[in-house]
Design goal:
homodimer; alpha+beta; Alpha-Beta Plaits; 8-stranded antiparallel sheet; 5 helices; 24% helix
Chain lengths: 184, 184
């Protein structure tokens, strides 16, 4: 098994209790009570309603200077105080994937400030991005992003999402679901 | 199944007869007599010695201008006269994958002229790149490139490989095997 693989298992089990499931665009995802995050070759919980899988990977757009800024400021998932989380499965349309690398970078950062916006919320909001588009199976989403943060940063997280969704990059998003959770 | 998935099945079956298997760097791959190229959900031949899998995907480094030049000049695999082929499974080291996008682009093209070299050999040498690094399974290679060309272009293909392997990008390659084939 790829050690960078993570499975998000939606059902009745897992430490994350789902508080809301909101369809932002496109087809909804069946709401579940709980989500378990399973890494690599760990056993999957039984009786799942759905399993979304993705792998962490190399950065696709980040420059050398941006990578340094991010690594200086970002936190890892799993801090004790980070009892709130969100899982955001997202798909981009065929027009996005047909763009050249420089055109995608330009939309992503020069027009939409994806990295600059994310930086403003570090280290409060931790995130981990998983890629699904290049798995062997046909996956329902291209990306799964998992975020965690403390209760006090919940409003900041809403602001972060609102800022990102205003960008030109988001015009290429054709399916997005926002799942919010709290930890037992 | 992902419609962009291809499986390269090495064994005693398939239309491509292997004429040589050469280890360029790193661990060898078990030599086989024949290779079958299987797309998406087609049935895999039985009794394979190995199966290498990868998905075609969006371009990672190509600019808008380069993409236009490539699409104007490149041919698809499978031309009647293209009776020669090569499968080159290749892996890059951890240092490559830890680089930022702009540093990888700079090594790939500004220093190593990967795209510019490939362009010189179009349309004679057709190629299709498959990505394996972000599959759910732990794969032995990061990329599988399949090339086909006519007998008359065999020397040009050798030159193309020699030129690419001289570049700074190739210093990050830690496993590479070159399998040459002819079609029945």
């Amino acid at each position: 098994m790829n050690p960078r693989l993570f499975s998000f298992v939606g059902g009745a089990k897992g430490p994350w209790q789902v508080t809301s499931t909101r369809t932002i665009v496109g087809e909804p995802l069946t709401p579940v009570e709980r989500i378990a995050v399973v890494s690599g070759d760990q056993a999957l919980p039984s009786h799942a309603k759905w399993i979304l899988r993705g792998v962490t990977s190399n950065e696709r757009y980040t420059t050398h200077a941006e990578k340094r800024q991010l690594s200086e400021r970002q936190a890892s998932l799993g801090r004790t105080e980070a009892r709130h989380a969100a899982l955001i499965p997202l798909r981009k349309n065929a027009a996005w994937w047909a763009l050249s690398q420089d055109d995608r970078r330009s939309l992503f950062e020069e027009h939409s400030k994806h990295i600059a916006i994310g930086l403003k919320y570090l280290p409060a909001i931790a995130r981990r991005l998983h890629h699904c588009r290049d798995l062997a199976e046909q996956e329902p989403f291209d990306f799964l992003t998992f975020f965690d943060f403390a209760d006090v940063d919940s409003v900041a997280f809403d602001e972060l999402l609102a800022e990102l969704r205003k960008g030109a990059e988001w015009e290429f998003v054709d399916r997005e679901v926002e799942i919010r959770m709290i930890r037992d």
